[in-house]
Model the fold of this input.
Amino acid sequence: MFNLSKRIINALLLSLCDVGALLGAFLAAYHLRTRFEIFVQVQPINEYVLPLMALIGIIVLMFYKQGLYRDIRDLSMIEEYANIIKALTYAFLIALALTFFLKLYEQSRVLVFIFWSTALILLIVVRFVYYTILKQLRARGWNRLRVAVVGSDKKVRAVGQLLKQYPQLGYYVAAKVILPRDVSPRSDNLRKKIDHEILSRYQRGEIESVIISDTVKNYHHIMEVHELFNEYRIPHRNITEAFDLAGFKAPSGEGLEGLVNSLDEGQTSGGYKVLKRFIDEVVSLSILFITSPLWLLIMLAITLSSPGSIFFRQERVGYHGRKFLIYKFRSMRVDAPQYAKTPRGKGDPRITKVGAFLRRTSLDELPQLINVIKGDMSLVGPRPEMPFLVEKYKPIYRCRLLVLPGLTGLWQVSGRTNKPLEENIKYDLYYIKNQSLLLDLVILLRTIPTVLFGKGAY
Done:
């Protein structure tokens, strides 16, 4: 309950700061707008009261949907600012669409643009000041989050020392729980240990959140503990030194955020992740628009060639083991087993004639652009696997779950389905370690001839 109160107070304070910034931004925008005599005269300010209140409501709602009212302690501010830009732009687009289609108001478009610009500047400044003050208060012991650190003995001690070294992050280690190495997945002993050392303390209010830290050698612990905390509805996050076996090292002196970026998701910056997501959305939407006539032809061909649905949906495992439904154009007969292994040769009797063409040209994967737009996948990354295959993963293979799965990847442009996982895992590890916009661009460009010539596709 105490933790919930902290989150509510933080959200209320931030929303009040945002509302104040938006009101100030509008007054500044209105003043600037009225100073330019070359434009058409604007309406009196009192006529903007109702639409302004509605717009502020939409902005606050979009900020909430974008996660901008979470209790942030170690998120990169670059990512925070990018989320502000995205949410503010979406809110203004929604408001403009409503005024256009419903013909509610005839407002100055110049004023709207100036308002968006001033609002963006003030909101970013307000966030910067807010979190700067909050870090200073947390460094003095205010608003600290009581956490339990769970994992191997070495990693628990390392994370504990790091949190103590950076008090401005606002974490207080209230408990350290060492996972025994001899505990197997799905073990009752593991559940009992979590029940006794975490759940009971969480229910008494002694612990407000959990940080999970372990090596890839014990990755089954992480997945099992995640499931338990999800079941118990205990807030938790993950810091995984997933690159032990590959010999990757985290840069020193970067605080918790640096540790998370380096060990949990490869050595990438917040700016890279924001740009990658932006590119994913823009490129996917563009390809969807350009290929929309082709979608209609494919849908017609599938309907005429064999009975059954046009689309094929299948559960796959993605980022941090989260399951999602992947979309494809149906290329197999409707009675084919849904979770059979992917065909790796020509002449598979399960594949229809249209399906064979779709697979050879990779057109069957076009609907995965929807997965990219939804955020389940990225344009570039390791391919997502079916759950029964992930359950058989060796520990090192689970490194593939530390980034968003991709529509294409280094593995695919280096041979695609011709090689086994044992040989291709090195490509995924290389990509995870060396992620960059340049590498993503190279992979995307190499994907074009791979698809055009149908190399390795069946």
Notes: The longest helix spans residues 2-35.
